[in-house]
């Protein structure tokens, strides 16, 4: 099986003591690529370092996370955009709108999000979207900037059937499924029965959202196999076929050569 972890933060401090072992375990579990989204200007150096160290296995994205949008967001965007122009990025991310914790900066988050959507169009790259309590707002921004020109993934999808249906109206967007699918009371499995197979890709969001049966521990890409197994159960097909479908979807979205 060939798996692609489409969203993991392996440059985080959580992995500074054993990253080589984490990479080895990922490869042993069938993971052949890991995509790394940026968070803000404080993560740039670490992201570049590990992407260079594991070139061909780690693939960097570039963006400003919505919860990092503060009063200095214009300066942060300038710094991150400069990195975007010099680093060989696979996508723009992690970007989006997060209204779960604080709505006071909603206008700023929206402006930052739409600016970064324009980077996607500029370089013809997909976007990795963080959306929390903001599906409607995110979709409004996508339509405003140009849904026909944009493509990407709603990372860490855990929404309702209605939210899924709204996302599926965007023809060039997938949903990213992670360990939340394995959580006993998430209800996500029932929602995903309404989702076409060709719109799903897999991720870990490591070190966060560790799947059952390791919930409570640090997450890592080798655990993608547990998410895969649960996704196969939802679709009532084999893990091998689920791996083929989701990896093919990821290759198509992020522009890798596809060996269907």
Give a verbal description of the structure.
Helix content is 40%, strand content 15%. Strands 1-2-3-4-5-6-7-8 form an eight-stranded parallel beta sheet, sandwiched between helices. It contains nine helices and eight strands. With 260 residues, it is an alpha/beta fold. Helix 4 packs across helix 5 and helix 8 packs across helix 9. The model has no long low-confidence stretch (mean pLDDT 96).
Notable traits:
9 helices, eight-stranded parallel β-sheet, single chain, alpha/beta, globular, 260 residues
What layout of secondary structure does this protein have?
Blueprint: E1 3-5, H1 19-28, E2 31-36, H2 44-53, E3 58-62, H3 73-86, E4 91-98, H4 106-123, E5 127-132, H5 135-145, E6 152-154, H6 161-168, E7 173-177, H7 188-192, E8 200-202, H8 224-235, H9 239-254
Parallel strand pairs: 1-2, 2-3, 3-4, 4-5, 5-6, 6-7, 7-8
Helix pairs in contact: 4-5, 8-9
